[in-house]
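BUG: 3D viewer hangs when loading the predicted structure for this chain

Environment: internal workstation, default settings.
Expected: structure renders.
Actual: progress bar stalls at 90%.

Input used:
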Amino acid sequence: MTVLKRAVLFSDDRDAERSKSNVIDIAEGVKTACIAEIAATMTSDLEIPAAVVLRNVIKNTPTTFDEIETMFGKRVAVLAASNIGDCSTEALIMETSKNREDAAISAARSMSLDEKIIILAEKLHEISSLHKSRLKICADDIDGIDFTRVDWLPQGHKDKQALERHYRAVAVCLAELSGHVAYQKYCRYIDAVFAG
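Structure tokens produced before the viewer hung:
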């Protein structure tokens, strides 16, 4: 059985445990599957999408690093636990300090290629979701699309320019992946989301 299949089964078991307490979030599982699939398009190494699946387990269950390491090995555990939140939009935007943003971007530059693949997969999924939200909310049946609206921004975010700076800074940090279709899509989404 591949490491990815074992990670999915492990995640399913943990989700089943959470469902007993009515905490399960189906949307989060679908999101994680999409991110793992994006990561898999950039590498043939199944440990990377497996780590994506296990990141969700670490974030949303009481599963420990040691449990992941015992079941999947040190590399998968490190990838699954690494940089959770460091490059998230919330970590960079909720904190208005420019120093915090610079520190997170600096951390992203020092990531391994495997970590960058995971971050790019997460960011591509995130910005494609933003793009869909923007189109859905800004569409107006009578006057066309009103791209001046900002109510499509993620909850708690009011500064469209800060959000755009974040996504563009992440693109710069991940430029090592520019040969991948996922990176090119990410850059196109940035342009589409923040146009107008």
